[in-house]
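Let's practice the habit of predicting before peeking. Look at the sequence and jot down your guess about where helices and strands might fall. Then scroll down.
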Amino acid sequence: MTTESSSSHSNPTESQTGKIDTSAWKDIVLEYQKPSVGRATWQIVNTLGPYVILYYLMYLSLSVSYWLTLPLAILAGGFQVRTFIIFHDCGHGSFFKSRLANDIFGFITGVITFTPYYHWRWQHSVHHSSSGDLDRRGDGDVWTLTVQEYLEASRWKRFAYKLSRNPFILFIIAPLFLFIVMHRFPTAKASKRERRSCYWMNLAIFTMVASLSWAFGFKQYLCIQITVMTVAGSAGVWLFYVQHQFEDTYWQRRDEWDYTAAALQGSSFYKLPKILQWFSGNIGFHHIHHLSPRIPNYNLERCHEAHPLFQSVKPVTLRSSLKSFGYRLWDEQNQRLVGYRYLRELRRQQAVAAQN
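Done guessing? Here is the structure:
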């Protein structure tokens, strides 16, 4: 069993202190942080337009057969993922130059994706400020334990952890629960504005659901909406999972944590086929996004291609990303994610050592 991580992330600007020189990228990203009204408007048109059309076609198809509705719903799920990327950029204030425009379209796309705009924006900012910090886990990330924490955990906690990491729970049940149930309630730490954001969004969603149920019929609407949200939620959670859950990702304790290293080493470059890259709004260039959340999604690829530092991040492909299913725990000693098989082998070696 190897004790070294097979690093796939090259860091040519890493200093002797182990931290990456921020001057190598800060000036470069400035050019790509400038929003474009034309690009943003066209993205809204080519995303929300087809989504509305597909919704109407699904309504018509229900009178024929659900088997005709299903492929339309899957396609609509892809457009809902793209809608969430617009929502996401508005939350970062990067989609439009105008703050008001970002807030308006952030709210509209929030209704479509069942996500409270201001509340999510606040929580997501915490994720960006703490991603890769072992001492600040638990806000906007996938529950991740270290090997030592898992070994020391109670039987109940280990069971809960395994359950939460089960692919069916993580990618099917959890997304639906997150968007339908959890987003309806503000968290305990939320400010008044974030709390109001949840309440106003709930009212807007109720109005939308009631209107579409009246137009389509409640059962018909429910059938369409659950299918679309299942597809979009599963795809969205998978994207988020792969963006930070790969073998040699980045986790450090607070005193060793570095923002730039967390972005370039702890956020993947998920190289997808062009059609999937389009539907996911270029979010596969996640290393660029974490370097500078102010870069709109339509500028991420151009920024990635602007400097060798960004291109030095080895891509995760669609095929290689499937390995992420097996990663469960962070091995602090070897600085890599490992699976339960590694844990069994570790226990076996410890038992042999104890006997000797």
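How did you do? The first helix runs from residue 26 to 30.
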